[in-house]
Design a protein that fits this description.
Layout lengths: L3 E6 L3 H8 L7 E7 L3 H11 L6 E2 L2 H5 L6 E4 L3 H13 L3 E5 L6 H14 L3 E4 L6 H11 L6 E9 L4 E3 L5 E3 L17 H17 L10 E10 L5 E10 L3 E8 L8 E5 L2 E5 L8 E6 L3 E5 L6 H14 L12 H15 L2
Length: 342
């Protein structure tokens, strides 16, 4: 079987999980890594058996390697646009961590490069490759819950307080240099977590027949700004083509979980742990209810790696459905931009 050689730029926590995903994937080979941190290079080289000649302390050197087919970019949000551009202009396929860019303007500029170079590009929403997503799509397409009416989806984790004795809570010290809380690095709950329920809203709305899901409006936009000038709690509602509505929430101060309810006129789909590896799906119809269990995956990134490589090997410049298409990235960034600037 032909394999694609992958290179990875940026070796943070998410990269660790992503690289673990290469284990057992048949069409992909982890070949090269690049980082500004000598310590991370040494540790990752040893852990993943990377040859010395493919360990780089300069991102450009990895990009210029003729042995690399695709580059996974796992850098702070503020660096995505520059390095996506560098990769595409150097004839390298790209998978970039979410959100793809800081704003809609950057995304539109990337579209021009993407169309010109005709290389593969995808935004790394790994939940799109969970087997349960296919079950959700099948249930909707088979009209089991009837005509879609609305959905609610949240992603919130309290990273601002910690529990003390007798259930008392104490504020954590905020690191203003952290990518999560630094506005210059693209911090804030809207970009970091809100991008998940907005991207799911696009996927679900696109399944409705005769809907123009690119025609949307937003209302009830609420946002709390923290001490470092980034969003720490936010919510809003998206109305697609006046036919389908989606209420979304994101938070750094509330444990909202990452659950979703999709409502139809015959019943609901309740999705547990939507974005971190779906545990199960509950179908609640008017006359019956049942559950679809999800087999635990060894690594939720493995399916993503395998499907991305399959897309490229099949000659496509975009991810296989339901992977994130470039048009969806543009729409998602447009929604996030409006939400972030509300």
């Amino acid at each position: 079987m032909k394999k694609l050689n992958w290179g990875v730029i940026g070796l943070g926590n998410i990269a660790q999980k992503f690289l673990d995903g290469f284990s057992g994937v048949q069409n992909s080979n982890l070949l090269a890594i690049a980082s500004k941190s000598p310590t991370k290079l040494v540790n990752f080289k040893k852990q993943f058996n990377i040859k010395e000649e493919f360990v780089y302390n300069e991102y450009e050197d990895l990009i210029n390697s003729k042995d690399i087919d695709i580059i996974y970019i796992s850098l702070p949000n503020s660096l995505h646009y520059y390095w996506i551009e560098r990769c595409l202009k150097n004839k390298k396929n790209v998978l970039v961590e979410k959100p793809a860019t800081l704003n809609f303007t950057e995304a539109k500029n990337l579209e021009k490069i993407f169309l010109k170079e005709n290389l593969f590009f995808a935004e790394a929403f790994m939940y799109r490759y969970d087997p349960q997503i296919e079950n959700i799509i099948k249930i909707i397409k088979e009209n089991e819950i009837g005509n879609l009416l609305s959905m609610e989806s949240s992603f919130g984790v309290n990273i601002m307080t910690k529990k003390k004795f007798f259930f008392l809570k104490k504020n954590r010290k905020i690191d203003k240099n952290s990518r999560l809380f630094n506005p210059k690095l693209g911090g804030g709950c809207v970009l970091d977590l809100g991008c998940y329920p907005t991207s799911l809203s696009l996927l679900i709305s696109s399944l409705i027949k005769n809907i123009d899901y690119q025609d949307f409006k937003m209302k009830n936009l609420k946002k709390e700004i923290g001490q470092t000038d980034v969003s720490i709690d936010a919510e809003m509602e998206i109305i697609f083509d006046n036919l389908f509505s989606s209420k979304v929430k994101a938070s750094f101060k509330k444990d909202l979980g990452n659950n979703t309810i999709i409502k139809g006129d015959k019943g609901d789909i309740i999705v547990n742990n939507t974005f971190l590896g779906i545990k199960d799906i509950q179908i609640a119809l008017k006359d019956k209810s049942y559950e679809i269990k999800n087999l635990p995956l060894q690594n939720m990134f493995s399916n993503q790696i395998e499907n991305i490589s399959k897309s490229i090997l099949n000659g496509s410049n975009q991810a296989i459905f339901p992977g994130m298409q470039f048009q969806e990235t543009l729409l998602n960034m447009k929604i996030l931009d409006n939400w972030n600037n509300a």
